[in-house]
Amino acid sequence: MLDASLSSPESFASLTNTLTSVPVKLLLWAVLAGAAYHSVAGIKHLIMDFGIGESLEGGVMGARIVIASAVVLTLLAGAWIW
């Protein structure tokens, strides 16, 4: 991609058109959504390693917080992409 963007103005325009297409934006959004969920869930597990939220109620609340945080981050990623 770096080579294509630097070789000529025509190749830069072609690369720009490709990267701004709807399928590529959807793919990028899906990857960012997965990364957001994975990161937030990983932080939850690190917190649980310290003994916080290991009960049933704590686990349910932690799962809800993870899903809500991932949804917010996914929406922010979508706003950033589009």
Supply the key terms:
3 helical TM bundles of succinate and fumarate reductases, mainly alpha, 82 residues
Give me a quick take on this structure.
This protein has 4 helices and no strands.
Q: Could you give a short account of the major beta sheet?
A: none
CATH superfamily: Fumarate reductase/succinate dehydrogenase, transmembrane subunit
CATH third-tier fold name: 3 helical TM bundles of succinate and fumarate reductases
Query: Number of DSSP helices?
Result: 4
Q: Give me the oligomer status.
A: single chain
User: How many distinct folded domains?
Assistant: 1
What's the CATH first level? Answer: Mainly Alpha
What portion of residues belong to β-strands? under 5%
Kindly report the average pLDDT value.
Answer: 95
Structural class: mainly alpha
- SSE pattern, N- to C-terminal: HHHH
Which geometry do the CA atoms define?
elongated
Number of DSSP E strands: 0
State Rg.
19 Å
The percent range for helix content is: over 70%
Family: Belongs to the cytochrome b560 family.
Protein name: Succinate dehydrogenase cytochrome b556 subunit
InterPro entries: SQR/QFR_C/D, Succ_DH_cytb556, SuccDH_FuR_B_TM-su
Subunit structure: Part of an enzyme complex containing four subunits: a flavoprotein, an iron-sulfur protein, plus two membrane-anchoring proteins, SdhC and SdhD. The complex can form homotrimers.
Describe the protein's architecture and organization.
- This protein has 82 residues and is mainly alpha-helical.
- The chain has one domain (22-81): Fumarate reductase/succinate dehydrogenase, transmembrane subunit (3 helical TM bundles of succinate and fumarate reductases), CATH 1.20.1300.
- Helix content is 87%, strand content 0%.
- The protein has helices at residues 2-7, 9-19, 22-49, 56-81.
- It is elongated.
- It starts with a helix and ends with a helix.
- Pfam families: Sdh_cyt.
